[in-house]
Amino acid sequence: MAVPTIAKGPSPIRRAPRARKRYRRADVAWGYGFVAPAIALFGLMGVYTIVYGLSLSFATWNGFTPNWRWVGLKNYSDLLWNDPKYAPIVHQAALNTMWVMIAVPVLTVLVAFPLAVLLNSVRRLKTVLRSVYFLPQVTSGIAVYFAWMYVLQPDGAVNLMLGSVGLGSLQQPQGWLGNTATALPTLIVITVWSGVPVSMLLYLAGLQAVDPTLVEAARVDGASSWHITRHVMWPLLRPITAIIVLLALRDSLQGFQTFLIMTNGGPGNHTNVLGLEAYKLAFLSQLDPTLGLSSALGWMLFVAAVILAAINLRVMRRAT
User: Fold this and answer.
1) What are φ and ψ of residue 140, in 5° steps?
2) Alpha carbon distance 96, 17 (integer Å)
3) pTM of the model
4) What is the 3-state secondary structure (H, E, C) of 28-52?
5) What is the pLDDT of residues 178-216, one digit of tens each?
């Protein structure tokens, strides 16, 4: 008996890949359409600015004349050793920046980690205390800096407090920002004070993510709270410590707002840092052709930041 033949029409399965491909192209086109403005803005404000700044670092210009004057690597050599006017200032600023880069990360970790451990162990008013300690981060920076300037004046609260507790020998008649011996350490303390809140929250988030069974096992073995913190908590938080140190190094190397508002590099360039010096060369040199010097100094800071980030990443990989 012959088996009847069934006529086969066009299979819908064969059309599905083409339909999916057509829809995928439409989705991709819409995606590029939404991303295009951001890419154009980045190309204008990012790539163009970077290329323009790099080119300017090899020229001399005051920002007003129609043409640059190409000088090659002279700006870099002038900043490092060649120019008797700018090289000593840059050397002093580099030394001050080095002290800030050493002190700020170390003090930030030393303050933020114990504070996070303390807040993690508190049972009551934890939210209130967390908000209080985070307050410096959400307060207007300029207002805080002016408040610090008022507190640190010769007749400010710090000198008055020292005199009231019998420590008048520690008072600073010129003010804490007017004495060359105390100006830079004072600004370092203020920088640490403003950076501790974020670091504390990072540590607190890391502590709350630690497996409680590890802590319980350590307690069963007879470990004290100090040993648990040192030998259990601290090693587990090394990645967070690396992030905090990297952020502090970045702010120490490139940040200058505190120094600009509170001392403007004084007294006698004792609080002048590289970021502030680059700002002065760019905007506070009147009509002197120092924009090229400022751009060259900025690029040296960028290279230093990249090197520090690479070193930090390498050390972190070895530690973990």
Assistant:
1) -55, 125
2) 65
3) 0.83
4) HHHHHHHHHHHHHHHHHHHHHHHHH
5) 999 999 999 999 999 888 888 998 998 898 888 888 888
